[in-house]
Amino acid sequence: MPFRRLLPLLLTMTAALSTEAKAEPLVIAHRGASAHLPEHTLAAYARAIADGADYIEPDLVATRDGVLVARHENEIGGTTDVAQRPAFAARKRRQVIDGTSVEGWFTEDFTLAELKTLRARERLPELRGTAHDGRFEVATLDEIIALAAEQAARNGRTIGLIPEIKHPSHFQQIGLPMEDRLLEVLAAHAYTREAPVVIQSFEQANLRALRRRLGPSHPNIRLLQLLEMPDAQPGDALAAGKPTRYADLMTPAGLKDIAGYAEIIGPWTRLLIPVADDGALGTPTSLASDARNAGLEVWPYTFRPENHFLPMALREGEDPRTRSEAGSLAEIRAYLALGIGGFFTDDPALGRRAVDAR
C-alpha cells in the first residue's frame, strides 16, 4: 500500500521529538466544516463544533457600512448567488487588490442589509457539489461569536475563534480598516473577552500594530503570522513598495522578527513537508524546527480529504472528487509527527480522529 511509504518519515520525525513533551494539537475548522457545507456559514461552523473542532475560523472582510462578515474573499461572485441577482448586476466591476486585478462583486460595495439578501454557494462545486447552495445567509462576526458561545455552553467545552483579517492594506486604503473594528467586536461579547482568540494575517504591519494595541491587557488574544509561497509578497510590502517576500520571513532572522509580535506561524503545509517527485511526502524542511527555535508555535494550513488536494501516493483512485479518508489521516499524522501545535482542516471530524488516535 502507498501509505507504507510514510512509515520511515513518521518514525524519523517521531524519534526526533521523543524527548519533548507535546500538548494536544488543536483541530482548527478551516472556514467551518467546509468539506461538508458551504464555507463560512453558521451551519458549517455548527457542524465543525459538533465534529470536535477546538477552534473555528472566520475569514473577515468589511461591508460598505463597516460590518465584519465572514467570506473567503471580498469578491463574492464565487461564494454567493449575487451574479443571479439582477438588482446588483451594475455593481460588478474590476479593481486591483494586493497587486492583482480582480473582477466581480465586492463586499465593500454592499451594506450588510443587502448582503443578507444573498445566499451562500459552494466555492468548489466541481469537487463538492451544489446540494446546499441557496440555503444559508452570509454570517457576521457577531453571529459567529454568538454561535460559539451558545455551543460552548451546550457542549461544556471552550471553542476558540481564529479570525483572519483578509486584505488589510486594501481595506485600509479604501477607508474601511478592520483591526480596530475587530477588537471592538471581540470586546463587546462576554464570550470573546475570556475565550481563546487568535488573530491571523498574511500581512505584517497590521499584526505589529495589533501587538502594540493589545499589550499585556488581553491575555486571551494571540497573533498568528500566515506564510505562503516563498516568492510571493505580503500585501503591505506591495503597498509600501518594499521588496519583502515570504522567503525573507522564513529565515531564522525573519522568524525571530515574527516572534517579536506574534506567537504562532501558519505556513502552507508544503512549506513544512514538500511532495517528492514520486508523489509521496518528502523530507521535511527546517521551517518547523527553526520556528520552534525562535519561540514560535507552528499551525499549518490546510488539510482537505479530496484526492485533488492530496499527494498522489495518498489518493484513492483517479477521480479528483473522491474522498480519501485514509490518505487524509495519513497526511495529517505525518505533520503531527513534526510537533505542530495545531492545524487547519476542511474536515474537523477527520482532524479529530487523527489527533485522538495518537
Descriptors:
14 helices; TIM Barrel; alpha/beta; 32% helix; globular; 13 strands
Describe the protein's architecture and organization.
This protein is an alpha/beta fold and 358 residues long. It has one domain (2-72, 138-356): Alpha-Beta Barrel (TIM Barrel), CATH 3.20.20. 32% of the residues lie in helices and 14% in strands. A four-stranded parallel β-sheet has the order 7-2-1-13, with helices on one face. The longest helix has 15 residues, at 141-155. The protein is globular and about 50 Å long. Mean pLDDT is 94; it is low at 1-21.
Q: How many whole angstroms does the radius of gyration measure? A: 20 Å
Structural class: alpha/beta
Number of strands: 13
* Biggest beta-sheet profile: 4 strands, parallel
**Major beta sheet, strand line-up:** 7-2-1-13
Distance between the termini: 21 Å
| Approximate strand percentage | 5-15%
Q: Taking all residues together, what is the mean pLDDT?
A: 94
Fold-level CATH name? TIM Barrel
Supply the CATH class. Answer: Alpha Beta
Instruction: Tell the overall outline.
Output: globular
- In helices, the fraction of residues equals 25-40%
CATH architecture: Alpha-Beta Barrel
Low-pLDDT ranges: 1-21
Q: What order do the SSEs take from the amino end to the carboxyl end, as H and E?
A: HEHEEEEEHHHEEHHEHEHHHEHEHEH
- Tally of contiguous helical segments: 14
Number of domains: 1
Give me the CATH superfamily.
Phosphatidylinositol (PI) phosphodiesterase
